[in-house]
Amino acid sequence: MTVLAFTIILFAGAYTAGLIGSLTGLGGGVVIIPLLSVFLGVDIHYAIGAALVSVIATSSGSAAAYVREGITNMRIGMFLEIATTLGAVFGALLATIAPTHVIAVLFGCILIFSAMNSLRKKALHVLNESSPLAYKLKLYGSYPTSTGIIQYGTKNVLGGFVMMVVAGILSGLLGIGSGALKVIAMDNIMRIPFKVSTTTSNFMMGVTAMASAVVYLQRGYIQPGICMPVVIGVLLGALTGARILIRSSPEKLKIFFAVIITLLALQMIYNGVTGKI
Amino acid sequence: MEKVKDKDLQYVIGNLLRWGVWSSMAIALLGGAIYLYRHGQEIVNYPRFEEQDHDMLAILKDIFHGIAAGHGRSLIMLGIILLFATPVMRVVFSLIGFALEKDKLYVVITLIVLTIIFVSIQGGLG
To answer: What is the pLDDT along chain A (277 residues), one digit of tens a residue?
Structure first.
């Protein structure tokens, strides 16, 4: 295959991954890795490097709008970034010693978990009072809605923090944004309103992915020839997805993709177990 | 007063993120065009991954030498480095913002995050 053909195929694949990632809320990173490693035969290490770079691009790009609207809670984000960046550096170091087939199997499992999680109904809850520790750390805030400004508090800071370390490790090890785990930490454990937790999780991804991407860069995982079409493709795909989402709420599409992604994940686990990756 | 400053910080950081992403993408795209123009017809050959150990300064030096020699791949790398710098700059701007708001607790928290990033750039743990 010529470099030109390879680049065009990568770009098309990355665009699709970005589109699916943003429609399902899974994120582009999670879709691009199986696509590169299962279908295009790219070494999983290069795939992880390219995915991390694309996670930085999409999260920074989409975070920009939410930050300006004042939905993102920058204090909660900054506090939890201590946990995610620590985890991410640790995860990236783990990735350099972990055998490839273990990474593939673990990736498959996380992929299935994320796909199932994307189908979960999001409960709307707003906590009025913060726990004493959350209050001390100023982990509360308000966000604008169509019906006015909503005030909220948080609780269970330590539980959320620990979950964020895990999210960071998986992000650094697998080259994904770990959006699903981050939202669980903020949504289920710390009881932050859904809208705030998704946008804040997105906001945190850039710095989390960067903390491990630097380690990957120094180890030679970042290949410019692979990264360029992947990053641009994922970014444009995610932008297209965001446009479609504004117009419709594609529930059926979500189920369809969850099934496809589960199949991809099973394929990855199979390849990992049989040592084909 | 604090409310107003939080709003200003949101505005600055939102713009910083947007510009960081778009300018790094523009540079990577330009580098990609040069790379494809020069190497587009060659056969793809990515060897099995081999562990390397470069430090950040050597990587930056390589990139600038490559750009001076007109390598598209080095220009793509410059775009990627700029993309890496975007969230770091965001953290630095938050630090300035929290300092202006005299929020000592969050100045400390932000400094911890910066330290972790700095250690990972230094590769001190590797």
So the answer is: 888 999 999 999 899 888 888 777 777 777 788 888 877 888 888 888 999 999 999 888 888 888 888 889 999 999 999 999 999 999 988 988 888 888 889 988 988 888 887 777 666 677 888 899 998 899 999 888 888 888 999 989 999 999 999 999 999 888 888 877 888 888 889 999 888 888 898 889 999 999 999 988 988 889 999 999 999 999 899 888 878 766 666 677 778 878 888 888 888 888 888 877 6
Report the gap between the CA of B124 and the closest CA in chain A (Å): 10
The contacts of residue A112 (CB under 8 Å, 6+ apart) are A261, A262, A265, A266
Quick one: B108 exposed, middle or buried, by C-beta within 10 A (0-12, 13-18, 19+)? exposed
Among B18, B76, B86, select the one facing A228 at the smallest CB separation. B76
- A95 contacts on B by Cβ (under 8 Å): none
pTM surpassing 0.95?
no
